[in-house]
Amino acid sequence: MDLMLTLVSGIAWTVVYVEAIRVGLRDRTYAMPVAALALNFAWESIYAVREFTSGSAGVSAQGVVHVVWAAADVVIIATYLRFGRAEHPRFVTRPLFAAWSGLVFGTAFAVQGLFLAHFGMHDATRYSAFLQNLLMSGLFIGLYAARQGPRGQSLTIAVAKWLGTLAPTLLFGVLEDSPFILGLGILCSVFDLVYIGLLLRDRHRPAGAGAPFRSLPDPSR
Hints:
By secondary structure, the protein is mostly helical. Helix content is 76%, strand content 0%. Helix 1 packs parallel to helix 3 (61-83) and helix 4 (94-146) crosses helix 6.
């Protein structure tokens, strides 16, 4: 059961990353909220490095997955840096956008480091992962609202994220009997299902119905 849930989570999150890259390039935007993207990249990078520098006899499969996910995040970050400034008001100049991005990603690494220092390897990986996952669930809904629709998003991302979080919720929250993780996982599912519902509503909405997308400035300006 443990192996099956781990595989479901790993496959589902890999689908999230691959689809986020595809949708971001297709729609010329970024397909993951930047705060969640920064925390994910920091989490995967830190624990991948620890896995490869721990001095243990071999590298676990999860360590390899961390590296793959971090590499996928680099591509998503590239879409954010390429197209993200167009999502901001015109007063956000290139230097201001760069400074803000640096602050967000620097803070993400600091937060992950604080989790690790306070909780230790075992608990930090779980607590930080579920808290940032809950943040991501809420931010996806915020992204939908800010863009007035599903541009730069997809039902595949939404469903894969939900399943990729539900599996470790069952593993750590139920099988390992962690009420804290179970509670966070349930909250993630609530937000994820709301987000899935919003995207399904758009699929069944007649063409031309609803609020029009805002015209965005050229990201290359």
